[in-house]
Amino acid sequence: MRAVNPGTEIDWSSRFRQAPGLDFSEVLDGYLVYQEERDRLHYLNPTAAAILQMCDGSLAAADVAAVLATGFRLRTVPRDEVAGCLRKLLDEGLIATA
């Protein structure tokens, strides 16, 4: 898995996949994601968890942002927020480029 520096732009045509062996548990205010390979537990807010779950290789990053905009009825597509989340998920090894 490759890490992306915080200032690095996301290629909006890239597709991402979840790392293997992730175990999701819903908690009161978000999700816990256990990463068996690294024996790490991650806390994700509901939006970050939704982004992670959309990383199945079928959607380009731009599509993930558009789905969120539609789902939350936003006037603008949250490109910066989605890019930041994808960078963090990459850095944490939860996703990789498909």
Descriptive notes:
By secondary structure, the protein is an alpha+beta fold. The chain has one domain: Outer Surface Protein A, domain 3 (Alpha-Beta Complex), CATH 3.90.930.60. Helices cover 34% and strands 30% of the residues. The chain has 3 helices and 6 strands; from the N terminus they run ββββαβααβ. The strands form 2 sheets. A 3-stranded antiparallel β-sheet has the order 5-1-6. It has a 3-stranded antiparallel β-sheet with strand order 2-3-4. Helix 2 packs across helix 3 (79-91). Residues 1-6 have low confidence and may be disordered.
The structural domain count equals 1
CATH class categorisation: Alpha Beta
Number of strands: 6
Using only C-alpha atoms, the radius of gyration works out to: 13 Å
- Tell me the quaternary state: single chain
Enumerate how many helices there are, as a single number. Answer: 3
In short:
With 98 residues, the chain is of the alpha+beta class. Helix content is 34%, strand content 30%. The protein has 3 helices and 6 strands; from the N terminus they run ββββαβααβ.
Which key terms come to mind for this protein?
98 residues, alpha+beta, three-stranded antiparallel beta sheet, 3 helices, 6 strands, globular, disordered N terminus
